[in-house]
Amino acid sequence: MIASTTTLVDELARIVGPAHVLTDRDTVAGYVTDWTGHWHGATTAVVRPADTGQVSAVLACCHRAGVAVVPQGGNTGLVGGSVPMRGEVVLSTTRLAVIEEIDEVGRTLAAGAGVTIAQAQQAVREYGLDLGIDLASRDSATLGGIVSTNAGGVRMIKYGNTRSRLLGVEAVLSDGRVLSRWKALTKDNVGYDLPGLLAGAEGTLAVVTRVLMRLVVPAAHTQVVMAGVESVGAGLELIHRLERAGLTLEAAELMTRAGIGLVRKHRHLRPPLDADAPFDVLVEVSGPTQAQSLLLGVLAEAEGMVQGAVVETGPATKLWQYRESHTESVSAESSTPPVKLDIATPLREIEPFLEALTAGLAISFPGVTPICFGHIADGNIHVNLLDVTGDQRDAVTDFVLRLVTQHDGSISAEHGVGRAKARWITLGRSDVDLDLMASIRTALDPAGMLNPHILPGSSDSETNSPIELEREVAR
Ligand code: MLT
Ligand code: ZN
Predict the structure, then answer these.
(1) 29 and 121 share a domain?
(2) Does some domain include residue 468?
(3) Separation between Cα atoms, residue 378 and residue 409, nearest integer Å
(4) Which CATH number do you get for residue 402?
(5) Cα separation of 79 and 422, whole Å?
(6) Which residue, judged by its Cα, is nearest atom 7 of ligand 1?
(7) Residue 357: in which H helix or E strand, if any?
(8) pLDDT band at 454 (very low <50, low <70, confident <90, very high)
(9) Number of H helices, E strands in the chain
(10) Do 434 and 422 share a structural domain?
């Protein structure tokens, strides 16, 4: 047992080098606050190991000390899942940043968990391949982070979520043992799918240190259309018609007039379309060489349904910026940190859900501005609520998440549960389900040392934070 914070910090410094144990209040500030600015915590030390061996030694050391650890990648999560709360050690994976191997024939990428999505994309694109996962936070979000949150993103409709792209992992358990499931095989049915289990575990079961990802061959030619539509139903119908015409769906996004207005204000952009429809859908399609003529044909026949459309050849950065600027615009234009509720409903329920949401908010929370956007073909809507006062946060979250449940939806589609939705987890899972999750957690991390404040089965109260250790020593 390590007797004090000072001893723990010294031990950690011996493992990773003093330059990689950060304790200064200003230096750790960026690690103890989340991207949205709502979740704040405290850490006694941020540790930045350079390889799996060091991660193992750090975890073993903290385990012996009875000190909890919060793993953290790019800290771009939107549910407060990677922020320490009461002085836990933050294990930052950002130095695990080596791109180890790109296998052009087997179409795989082996890389450290701290490699950013943009770095991974750039590396594999040199081989004519792609990661198959893309999201607006690509410059900071890390491979380990997207595995731990099972991120979706804008390409999910075509290539699936991160779990479905993951072939293998190297990960360290809370006591320092290293799990290596590392075979570049698409078929490998020997027992439980442990990499799949770690995907989406939000850092509660193990710390992912290396990943083996299955790559994709990107479409050679893509076309992007932004179309104004009167209703969500019309947007879905347009998407179905594009697919029925023989085009492949690469991405399908929903935005609203209010969201586009906010983005235009924040980014000083011109309106994307002449018409001012209540909804805009942005659809990226690929297909044979005549993809553009197929697309234009569908648009010509959809005249009454589509209120103006504009087409740009892929990568279509001009059109995509209206969608990709939503997150930063929402944060910048809200007078308080936005309430970000990532939810999913069956496709047929999106429209009634959004109608009930708008009406309910107007009655019960008139000062709150909703900006809804998201991955329409996945039924995944990001409900962003602006100008929510501190005392309204829980009530408005409760209102939205209960409404989602009434529409047969999920309270978390792609962002995870984290701290933001921990109180509402019973809306998403039954008692038996939660019990089983807790049992799995206990089996992998019996002392509850990893990310103790989130997901079921937390044995939070049994672990010491360094701050508590310090108090004990002082007594
Ligand atoms: C996105 O798709 O842009 C993010 O997941 C959503 C958000 O900021 O709510
Ligand atoms: Zn999203």
Answers:
(1) yes
(2) no
(3) 12
(4) 3.30.70.2740
(5) 9
(6) 327
(7) helix 347-364
(8) confident
(9) 17, 16
(10) no
CA 229 to centroid of ligand 2, rounded, Å: 21
Q: Which tokens hold the place of 213?
A: 């990802």
Are 33 and 102 in the same domain?
yes
Which protein residue's CA is at the shortest distance from atom 5 of ligand 1?
Answer: 153
Last residue of a domain, one of 278, 306, 324: 324
DSSP states of 399-418: HHHHHHHHTT-BS-SSS--T
Which residue CA neighbors atom 8 of ligand 1 most closely?
327
- Crossing angle of helices 326-333 and 257-267, in 10° steps, is 80
The CATH number of whichever domain residue 254 belongs to comes to: 3.30.70.2190
Q: Residue 92 maps to which CATH number?
A: 3.30.465.10
Three-state SS at 35: coil
Closest ligand 1 atom to residue 414 Cα is 5
- Which residue has the least CA distance to atom 9 on ligand 1? 382
**331 in contact with ligand 1, CB cutoff 6 A:** no
Same domain membership, residue 247 and residue 113: no
- Per-residue pLDDT at 455: 75
70-87 residue pLDDT tens: 999 999 999 999 999 989
Check whether residue 318 and residue 415 sit in a common domain.
Answer: no
167 shares its domain with 25: yes
301 CA to centre of own chain: 37
Among all bound ligands, the one having the nearest atom to the CA of 420 is 1
Local confidence band at 303 (pLDDT 50, 70, 90 cut-offs): confident
> Cα of 135 to ligand 2 centre, how many Å?
7
Verify whether ligand 1 is closer than 6 Å to residue 98 (CB atom).
Answer: no
Q: Indicate the residue type of 184.
A: A
